[in-house]
Specification:
Layout: H1 3-6, E1 11-17, E2 22-28, H2 35-51, E3 56-61, H3 62-71, H4 75-81, E4 88-94, E5 97-99
Antiparallel strand pairs: 1-2, 3-4, 4-5
Helix pairs in contact: 3-4
Length: 107
């Protein structure tokens, strides 16, 4: 992700909200983003759109997914996945970012 280049000392989460037709952005570990920082963030996100980077959907064995999220220190996901009934997990990838999302993702 390009975001750590701009915001190295905080956690920046940008998530979608399909029902409201927009995006939700939250920053933790610092004051809210300034107008200039928001403009820079918007520029980076528009660059993602221009590059038309595909989302890749793959199904991986559950033990491999748990191993990956342990390595990423995503303890909340590891705890959640230990109770999963299926022996696989659908992972979505955007460049080097791999993640799991509850429910279906829009193609």
């Amino acid at each position: 992700s390009a975001f750590p280049l701009f915001f190295p000392c905080c956690l920046l989460t940008v998530d979608h909200s399909v029902s409201s037709g927009g995006y939700y952005c939250q920053v933790s570990g610092r004051n809210p983003l300034s107008r200039d920082e928001l403009t820079k963030l918007e520029s980076v996100m528009r660059d993602f759109v221009k590059r038309d980077i595909p989302f890749k959907r793959t199904e991986v064995p559950l033990d491999k997914a748990i191993e990956y999220f342990k390595k990423e220190k995503a303890d909340d996901k590891v705890r959640l996945l230990r109770h999963r009934q299926k022996d696989y997990l659908t992972i979505y990838q955007l460049e080097n970012l791999h993640d799991y999302h509850h429910g279906y993702m829009v193609p």
